Amino acid sequence: MTDTHGGSTPAQPEGQATQPVLPKMQVLGQFVRDMSFENIAAQKAVNASVQPDIQVQVALDARKREAEDQYDVIMKLKIESRTREETPQPIFLMEMEYGGIFKVENVSNEQLHPFLLIECPRMLFPFVRRIVSDVTRDGGYPPLNLDSIDFLALYRQQLAQRAATRKADA
What predicted TM-score, i.e. pTM, was given to this entire model? Predict the structure, then answer.
């Protein structure tokens, strides 16, 4: 057979669209940046045998690292446990900053901020949940298994708070 195309073949068949480049994320490392567990009930002889009232606060932060396409994402948790009495007594207080180092590629600048504060914390959360469970168990309490966190809703809430702050400042 002879080549009828003159030796060149088209790079892409006609009528086919190019494949979109998919975002790529790698977890390069994870770490506990800071952690504190105050067992207040044990120190002050508070009766902690009742069903506690547990409050969980979560904050997120992300920043660019010097290396190309690398970012630090930090999840800050504050977990307070109190008795359910008329005058609640503290049982324990746990504060933790858990971080991840991520390499993120093929994400546009407009989508990078939400990607870092939604998708990256989703990757870290199972490890955070395990640490909280282990620390509370080792502190003498039933293991605290954190409920899943909706990071999209948390991101939207933070955006709304920032917008309200800007509006109040203006």
Answer: 0.80
